[in-house]
Amino acid sequence: MSGDASNTGRRTDNRRSALRLAAVALAMFGFGWALIPLYDVICEITGLDGRTGVAQAASLPTQFDADRTVTVQFVANVNSALSWDFAPAVISMQVHPGKLYDTHYLARNRTAAAIVGRAVPNVAPNVAARYFNKTECFCFSEQSLAAGEQREMPVRFVVSRDLPPEVKVLTLSYTFYRAPENG
Amino acid sequence: MSSHTAHDEHHAHDDHHHGPEPGLMRWVYTTNHKDIGTLYMLFALLMFFVGGALAMGIRAELFQPGIQILEPELFNQFTTMHALIMVFGAVMPAWVGFANWQIPIMIGAPDMALPRMNNWSFWILPFAFTMLGMTFFIPGGAPAAGWTMYPPLVLQGGWNLAFMVFAVHLMGMSSIMGAINVIVTILNMRAPGMTLLRMPLFIWTWLITAFLLIAAMPVLAGAVTMLLTDRFFGTSFFNAAGGGDPVMFQHVFWFFGHPEVYIMILPAFGVVSQIIPTFARKPLFGYESMVYATASIAFLSFIVWAHHMFTVGMPLTGELFFMFTTMLIAVPTGVKVFNWVATMWRGAMTFETPMLFALAFVILFTIGGFSGLMLAIAPVDFQYHDTYFVVAHFHYVLVPGAVFALFAGAYYWLPKWTGHMYDEKLGQWHFWLSTISVNVLFFPQHFLGLAGMPRRIPDYAVQFADWNRISSLGGFAFGLSQLIFVYVVYKAIKGGEKATDRVWEGAHGLEWTLSSPPPYHSFNTPPKVTEAEAHS
Amino acid sequence: MGATTKRRLASAALAIGALAASATARAGYDQLNLPVGVTPISQTAYDLHMLITWICVIIGVAVFGVMFLSIYLHRKSRGVTPAKFHHSTAAEIIWTIIPCVILVGMAYPATKGLIAMEDTSEAEVTIKVTGYQWKWKYEYVEDGITLWSNLDPTSRAAIHGDVSAAENYLLSVDQPLVLPVGKKVRLLITSDDVIHAWWVPQLGMKKDAIPGFVNEMWIRIDDDKAGIYRGQCAELCGKDHGFMPIVVDARAADGYAAWVTERQAAKTAAAPATAGTLAQATAQPTPAARAAF
Ligand SMILES: [Cu+2]
Ligand SMILES: [Cu+2]
């Protein structure tokens, strides 16, 4: 074979292969970022991270399961960077799956300045999260408390009738964080 | 066909006729696969001693209860930097060095396919590690959140986070370029007759490793970039307060992290599969099943990642899935070990230093594999997780595993690389001292973990004192023993008994048909590869 | 290697062996192995651990046995001629299938154990555990009791001094978590800052404490196992990660009830509070307390 022609050919081949592999590497870089929304989607489907669902009141079933009772516990956490007091009105409720319930939390700003907080909801056990739906919650938006203000923060929720039968206790927990200054 | 095939147009003719440039600039501008291979290996050796010095500091602090040498902040910096340097600075570059030296001469190519990129991919590394090492001297010190860089802890770090992230980016780029080069060389540059299934196993394992690198390293780059934006640009990927999830980082990190383990160990499988047949004077048993086993390990490595996260609170189905897939890795790994033993069976073995390290690898890596299998069992992992049992496990896999395979390969090919036989007597000393001390160092850590000692702590309760003391003594002995290796390498470079072309009586493969040391340009005329030479 | 070398290596090995033997003798067998523990979960984990360990030991002895036999028999110095075989489909199939069978044998009890550990039934006591850099907060949800648990000051003082001066060095706290035996206790684990992990080996389970998320874990300490159990934070959480121990004081039913009454009385005296008011939530850590080290 004639050296130069085949060398040039091979050099082009090498360059083409290298570019293809570089494209694969770039695609994998993109995949790394894509894992974030992908993970959120998986969490939404499986409740993997214990984040709760949101339901429209209109779409809720009108019938409920009168024979079954589950305990819903309410837990409150405040991040230490936020000088608020925060507690549930009741520590637990007995609920029927499929029925709509109301309760509230209490929050008070201990400081002499208005502060904006943001509540992150979480349900344990994680598998039950997707069966815990809220139609109204203070965690849907940021909450502002004036200096020394105390306020009731309502939650309206329904536990789905599809809740796996082995789950007898659900814990709804909120962690209040200080919202970033610029909103 | 002539040798300028893979060379840059301007230099092709000069290089071909005159060999290396004289002086130091040879090393800066070199596009020669042997020069670059040497640079990689020397750099890795240097990093091995830097990372090792940090390990000595850690073991000295843990020699007795109470804090004597390293305050907790500094201790955490030592463990973090020890891991980053050993993983990205020592083991990975050492294997890339082996790839550079060995791939062309084992597949009958004149050089690597992309010589200029090869030069870049090496010279990035010293900058990356200077940047990483500098963090020891900036306010706030070096990264201290562990090599796993879990948020939110890692986000409490100061500027060191930015330095670490950029260093990881550079290391990643270097590895990816190295991997691209390996793949292109293996796929495009083989000598006529060197079909895929005639390639030596070291080539196969590196080919698969290179694909793992290309798939895994960019994901790490993505993950650390998100850390950077979370820390400095107000994003909330991993910040619960902003709607993020810290556990998500762990998923992304271990999606890279588990394949990373195999990036460090697959080339070791390859080297051992070259050495055992040579010294057993018998062909490798089950060549094809070795190839398939390697490929299935590589595939499985992408679907087991969450076995590092059994305690984060996954749903039962997730825990079961990751437990089963992880256990499954034992099957191809077992096939490999059985094949190595079957290769020895009814051979005619001699026990020169490379063979000794390879045999120790088989046994000690398997011990690491056993503890890995135990860690896969989720209901017991709740106890093992984040204890010294885990530390013992991965050090067995990486030190008498990957590092011993590196030693085995270095002794095996040193006569080829330098043209001189190494000092066998010193080699044997190095082997026995290393093997004994590495077990004294790491075996007691199994006990410590089972008895309840968490990892990454600078100080411990008094009931852990005895085993820690023994472990530290083993550590110091192991550290000192490595100086022998440096002397052996130095001596072989300087001179000594001339090595023959074949070097080892039982050696087979193209590299042994070249002179020792091989000519500056490996195969000017591509060799013809026959079935008989390839698989005997 | 010469005879002297071998002798020297042998005596070095002997010395290390003697040191190891004395370590075992002094510290006892429990310093070598996983504790059996005091809960059904820890018992399950221990049984599985022993099963898998023995399976590994048997496989190891078999494989390494064959290997050493080969090293002994098939040495060139014995004048053997190497065989030429390089594959055997039958052998390769056998040693793929046998490990699969063994793995199924391991996976079955492991799956059973894992499912047994999953239990979402109602608990009698619920305690919220919050990890902080570097201490734990325990809140008894039903009884309205809050405890802060810090490294015991004598241990802290001994870190840079004489560790033998502190009893249970690094494993003692100012206020332990008091638990009843024989009752199902549910822990809701979370964190205020970085990730921690709550672990007491004798209780057989560890769980990560993740900020913004609540993890569940349950414990039922055997009826006859009242006592003190010690553990540590198990996830790197910064500077004092090694200095945030966990101590569980497990008490029989009446002892526990008495403790709860006593704590509630003490609290009512200090600041009256019931669920639905905010007084109890004010016990935030002060910056001064956090910088104690
Ligand atoms: Cu892994
Ligand atoms: Cu902690």
Could you describe the 3D structure shown?
The complex is a heterotrimer of chains A (183), B (536) and C (293). With 183 residues, chain A is α+β, with helices and mostly antiparallel strands. Helices cover 24% and strands 38% of the residues of chain A. Chain A has 2 domains: 1-46; 53-178, Ctag/Cox11 (Ctag/Cox11 (Pfam 04442), Sandwich), CATH 2.60.370.10. Chain A is flat and about 80 Å long. Helix content of chain B is 67%, strand content 0%. Chain B is globular, with a radius of gyration of 23 Å. Chain C is 40% helix and 20% strand. The interface between B and C is large, with 101 and 104 residues. The complex binds copper (II) ion (CU) (2 copies). One copper (II) ion (CU) binds at residues 258, 261, 304, 307-308 of chain B.
Tell me what portion of residues of chain C adopts beta-strand conformation: 15-25%
Task: State the assembly state of the protein chains.
Answer: heterotrimer
Any idea what the CATH architecture of the largest domain in chain C is?
Sandwich
The portion of residues forming beta strands of chain A comes to 35-45%
End-to-end separation of chain C in angstroms reads 54 Å
The biggest sheet of chain A, with number of strands, parallel, antiparallel or mixed sense and barrel status, is: 5 strands, mixed
CATH topology of the largest domain in chain C: Immunoglobulin-like
Q: What topology, given as strand order, has the largest sheet of chain A? A: 1-7-9-5-3
Number of separate domains of chain A: 2
Rg of chain C is 26 Å
Largest interface: B-C, 101 and 104 residues
- The CATH architecture term of the largest domain in chain A is Sandwich
- CATH fold assignment of the largest domain in chain A: Ctag/Cox11 (Pfam 04442)
Rg of chain A over CA atoms, rounded to whole Å, is 26 Å
Question: How many β-strand runs of chain C?
Answer: 10
Name the bound molecules. copper (II) ion
Low-confidence stretches of chain A: none
Give the overall form of chain A.
flat
Termini separation of chain A comes to 70 Å
Can you tag this structure with a few keywords?
heterotrimer, A: 183 residues, alpha+beta, Ctag/Cox11 (Pfam 04442), 2 domains, five-stranded mixed sheet, 1 helix, 10 strands, 24% helix, flat, B: 536 residues, mainly alpha, Cytochrome C Oxidase, Chain A, 17 helices, 0% strand, globular, disordered N terminus, binds copper (II) ion
